[in-house]
Amino acid sequence: MSEQPIRIVTSDSRRAPWWILLIVGIVVVLAAIGLIVWPFIAASGMLAIIFGVALTANGLAMLVRSGPGAGSRVLGAVCILAGVLAVVFSEFTGRALVVLVGSALLVIGVSWLVLSARLGAGRSGFVLVPGILAVLGGVFALIWPATALSIVAFCAGLLMLVFGASLIWGALGMRHTRVDRTTIIVEDRPLP
Question: pLDDT by residue (tens digit) across 26-54?
Fold first, then answer.
């Protein structure tokens, strides 16, 4: 069997400095601490800001990529306006999104239960568990939206804390890496 040649690719291009990753990690950790300490206040504000920024970014993308038609320009402008309003009225936006997610969980859970009952005749009853959990989560979110948002925010804060710490750890590890001496070895293998 013949061996395939190995290409060695060296890179002269510079990556982003390590301290940028460190700053992003610190910001993520601070946001995580905010979510853990003040789950509802931080979550509703952050949720509204993230939603508003996403709407604004989509609106800008529609305006930039719009063709000769006016429909995409109008839709882009509406998305930008909705994004700004979502940030300005963040408390209402946070509650509305929780109600929307709760309603979606109800629809998904009921659909799961109906499909499981039809398709899973004679199978284990465990196939119903995701549908039951989705219905319970939807009812919980609709009855107690503030508590549901706080629980989700606290869990998201814990995950963000781990993610931010890993960014900081990676940045500190990159501090002594010499990018100009980094070598990437690529082994070309034929597809089977």
Answer: 888 888 888 788 776 766 677 778 778 88
C-alpha–C-alpha distance, residues 129 and 131, integer Å? 5
State pLDDT tens for residues 69-114: 777 788 888 988 988 998 888 878 877 878 888 898 899 999 988 8
Q: Which two tokens stand for residue 141?
A: 């979110």
DSSP per residue, 106-125: HHHHHHHHHHHHHH-TTS-G
Cα separations (Å) of 17 from 14, 20, 24, 62?
8, 6, 12, 32
Classify residue 88: in a domain, yes or no.
yes
- SS3 category, 184: strand
Counting the structural domains of the chain, the total is 1
Domain-embedded: residue 1: no
| Global confidence as pTM | 0.54
Look at residue 192 and tell me if it is in a domain. Answer: no
